[in-house]
Amino acid sequence: MKDIFDEVQFSNLNLNSRIIRTGTWETEIEEGGFLTPAIYDRYEKIASSGTGLIVSEIFALDHKDRFFPYSANMNYRGFIKDYQMVTDIVHRYDVAILGQLAFFYYDDGVNQKAEANDLTLKGIRKLQAEVIIAAKKFSFAGFDGIQINMGNNFFLARFMNPYFNQRTDNYGGNTENRVRISSEIIKVIKKSMDMHVSCRINPWDVRKGGITADESIAIASELEKAGVDSIQLTARTISQIYDRGKKHPFLGYVDDLIGAVDIPVVIGGSLREMSKINDVLNNSKVEFVSMSKPFVAQADFLAEWKKNGEGKAICYSCNNCYSKKTSTCFKHE
Ligand SMILES: Cc1cc2nc3c(=O)[nH]c(=O)nc-3n(C[C@H](O)[C@H](O)[C@H](O)COP(=O)(O)O)c2cc1C
Among residues 133, 126, 146, 33, which one has the least CA distance to residue 79? Predict the structure, then answer.
């Protein structure tokens, strides 16, 4: 029998549970980027209460990015010092933490909002170098790895999507080519630093001519070939839809995905109750699950679940935290 509080191996990382606190932005960052005490406290509560792995909030590459107003800045002078404190706090509880990088726009020096089709080869190299430097910065700050978000509608998701990418060079065409911009980055990171690399990907795309469930499995295999250590599926924010007592929409698909790769796969979205999560674990190949909003509502709720052997998150998925771009719950905290 699998249980959420099993101690488990997650590629090169030892986890104290199967629960991943997935990427969740913090909005209490001070002007200039500096972290507030509330953020350190929240990380401590999350790490000390039974979480297996933490994915940080989103860091954008550039201050012109659409996500920048509510994503964190890794280009301020206190970044390494501030986040060394975050990673130290988390490591005190033997919990691993990944820094999440996600960017929506890319300025290739010619075009401020270059898209897959018009990114020059020089632009590709510049982008790859910037992501590799970001990984290095995360490693200096004590993160155990990097999660590159190539899901949702982020730049690398669009780049690998045939709906957006009609390039005729080595970076367009078949799946391998559309993933190449990311595979090349991953190969360099894996070769040059001791960092876990996780990729967040979409299970499928709703656009006609976009990525199918079969192709996303092929994408995961390409990423695995490049050296990726784990895959996390995006859950988008339609979580209310699958809250209404329905079966999690990724379950059939995820068993196929897990069967196709040899690296850990994380699913999440609308998971709120310990018994239901254990049901998912014991009735599928799923071994790792993620949660975001329950931690916004109560950062240390897992301690109660662990103590009582059962529990239900107080978050009722109103999604206000997401819509208002806050990291706090208007109802509970
Ligand atoms: C307040 C808030 C902030 C979020 N920030 C991020 C983020 O920085 N990076 C990311 O990949 N996803 C982010 N998400 C999406 C979550 O990681 C997650 O996929 C989504 O909320 C569904 O999971 P849940 O039902 O457990 O909340 C955020 C979600 C919320 C509600």
Answer: 33
Q: Could you read off the pLDDT of 104-125 as tens digits, one per residue?
A: 999 998 898 999 999 999 999 9
- Residue 237 CA to ligand 1 centre (angstroms): 7
- Rounded to whole angstroms, how far apart are CA atoms 33 and 88? 19
Hey, what domains does the chain have and what are their CATH numbers?
8-323 (3.20.20.70)
Q: Is the CB of 322 under 6 A from ligand 1?
A: yes
From the list 91, 97, 12, the residue with the least C-alpha distance to 48 is: 91
pLDDT digit string, tens, across residues 151-183: 999 999 999 999 999 999 999 999 999 999 999
Q: Report the predicted TM-score, pTM, of the whole model to 2 decimal places.
A: 0.96
Higher pLDDT, 251 or 202: 202
C-alpha span between 270 and 102 (Å, rounded): 22
**Mean local confidence (pLDDT), 56-84:** 87
* Ligand 1 center–CA 319 separation, angstroms: 10
Q: Please say whether the beta carbons of 21 and 291 come within 8 A.
A: yes
Mutate to test the pocket of ligand 1, among 4, 21, 24 (most ligand atoms within 8 A of CB): 24
CA separation (Å) from 77 to 43, 69, 80, 132? 21, 18, 8, 19
Q: Which amino acid type is present at position 40?
A: Y
The protein residue with its alpha carbon nearest to ligand 1, atom 11, reads: 23
Beta carbon of 232 within 6 Å of any ligand 1 atom: no
